[in-house]
Amino acid sequence: MEPGIRSEFQFNQSHVQCKIGHAVMADGTTLQMFMASETIDSVVIDSVAKTVVVTGTMVSMVRLRFASGGDATLTENVPFVMFGQDNGIPGADGDVFSLTVLYADTPDLDQFDLFGSPATFAGTLATGNIEVN
User: Fold this and answer.
1) Fewer CB atoms near the end CB (10 Å): N or C, the chain?
2) Mean pLDDT score, 29-52
3) Average pLDDT of the segment spanning 10-37
């Protein structure tokens, strides 16, 4: 993913999701993305380090509209690792979130072609708060 594209992350012990409502790539292609967990395999909370790691499988769906006028919807089930770190007061210390997924490379246009594999969607939260107790 190109730097600076705003994403929305949400998670708890039973659900992880990531959304990109609308982005325009360098070639003029518009992109919408939605990823949501289907299964949770493990949840590890470290109250001392203030971190949480969630693993499982999610569906990853991308809708593309090409500058040439065509479009495509790409859907894939992927394993994921989600990491969150509570760095203190919201907006003061920058809580961190990352979601790493493994895309499969196929002969057709796929999410591997867009993001590579593993693909990590991550950053310091601009709004919101991660709380690890």
Assistant:
1) C
2) 94
3) 89
d(CA 59, CA 80): 10
In order of 30, 62, 89, 98, 119, the CA distances from 110 in angstroms are 15, 9, 39, 22, 13
- Containing H/E element for 112? helix 111-115
> In whole angstroms, how far apart are CA 92 and each of 88, 124, 130?
7, 11, 12
Q: Residue 62: what pLDDT? A: 96
First to last CA, the chain: 31
The 10s digit of each residue's pLDDT in 93-128 is: 688 889 999 999 999 999 999 899 999 988 887 777
Is 56 in contact with 28 (CB distance < 8 Å)? no
Max Cα distance, the chain (Å): 52
Query: Please, what is the average pLDDT of the chain?
Result: 88
Residue 62: DSSP 8-state: E
Helix and strand numbers (H, E) in the chain are 1, 7
